[in-house]
Amino acid sequence: MVAVLVLAPFFVYPVFLMKALCFALFACAFNLLIGYVGLLSFGHAVFLGGAGYGSAHAAKVWGFPPEAAILFGTLVAAALGVVIGALTIRSRGIYFANITLAFAQMVYFFAVQAKFTGGEDGIQSVPRGVFLGLLDLRRPLTMYFVVLAIFLLGFLIVYRAIHSPFGQVLKAIRENEPRAISLGYRAEHYKLIVFALSATLSGLAGATKAIVFQLASLTDVHWTMSGEVVLMTLLGGLGTVFGPVVGAFIMIGLENYLATLGAWVTIVQGVIFVVCVLIFRRGVVGELGRLLRRPL
Amino acid sequence: MGQLLIGLINGAFYAMLSLGLAVIFGLLNIINFAHGAQYMLGAFVAYFALQWAGLGYWWSLLLAPIAVGLFGIVLERTMLKRLYHLDHLYGLLLTFGIALIVQGVFRHEYGSSGLPYGIPSQLSGGYNLGFMFLPTYRAWVIVFSLAVCLATWYVIERTRLGSSLRAATENPALVQAFGINVPRMITLTYGFGVALAALAGVLAAPIYQVNPLMGADLIIVVFAVVVIGGLGSIMGSIVTGFALGVVEGFTKFFYPEASNTVIFVIMAVVLLVRPSGLFGRSTRAR
After folding, report:
1. What residue in B sits closest to A110 (Cα-Cα)?
2. Position A239 in a domain
3. Among A26, A30, A25, which Cα is nearest to A40's?
């Protein structure tokens, strides 16, 4: 995967790749929650969008260099994640989905009205700046490799979290929470930690995205964005390591090609949702894994 | 007083929509994400009936719930039925997909601007109450939706049909063993919940215009209402629906900046104090 991604910008439009990478990281972070703890959050756009506002504001108004701006945005998402997680983590299943959604909508309305977010306009023309004082991000290729590095870092964190004793406990909670508790694991602590981790990594994706596109807007906090990340993960394969990456690339690619058709994007997304839920629940990578008879 | 009226109107829609969600959730255990889209469909059926068949408001009030309810029944029979043995989250995802398709198709055909729908001539005009002006149509919406909500509550909580419905919520296998056709009951219940959404759509058409996205954001507020009232609680959804509409109306008057968020703030507080909602029984683990 790394080799393909390193060579890709020489063949494919880098901005498209950067967008796909940001969403791939977002979907991986989201998958950490639904795929490994079985919690469906329908409000993850908050962390993507909130971090986007954080980093855009830091870079534009406070004049932070890009690495500090991204760090600040990520911290914003982490803080949001801890607060929202602490309030929602006691619920489960449909309740959890509903409640996260409502919180996300609350933050959305806040973003519409607050002054620093620029309302409908968002924060525009955010400077890209010079990364660590060395790498000039105004050159697309440099920007691409920085994004790639951030994506790989996030992906590694997710990978390590899954393949660790911590990840095993998460799976135990997903399969049978009362039993995990009776074995002495504090299920709610684990769930809160993974929720915050997922929020932080979503924030990393959002903060990077804001720097790449020099824009933080309402689209990223709206609940349709939360729906989109569910779709990416579902299409790629819930609970697979590479699934969200594949799903994100497919969805962003589709959006790119269908962009001129307006409302058709929504229709196609809806159809993919229905097909995935009815007959394709393992997703692309999940099905591949079944054909190859090993988990991917 | 004006704000109180607007609040009551919004509350009437919240109550009808969250009632439909509660009925569906009670028996099917799924959150019907397509509820907003079905509300929108109800309004569009009224619009089509007027444009193509010349059928007025009163016919639509009858026809739209039936048409959209049938659409719901078809959805349940062909798609939702296959998901009952799975995690309930898949039902949510499926209905979300359906909502995207329906809203996408209508947005493609009609854009996102509103189409006007007139108030029926019998209900135009208004009364001057001395301290405020009361448009007849708005009074009608409040009274009619309250009647529908209470009738639904009566059927579910006080009749024999309702008691078998509630029994099927608790233990479907046992109720089936008593010779009641539970799958058919589930289908009809989904159809009924959807029909309620469509009915609300027709009521809303003259007030808010007919718009492909009219249900998209409303449904999120209704979800919050349902969470506050307690998922699956019939009376809870009616009372909280109206109450929150009024609270929202007053907030708009005293502190307009918070009017969009107040319901979500209330939800957060309620969740901290009573995680299963104001009227909910304790959350069953599932």
Report:
1. B261
2. no
3. A30
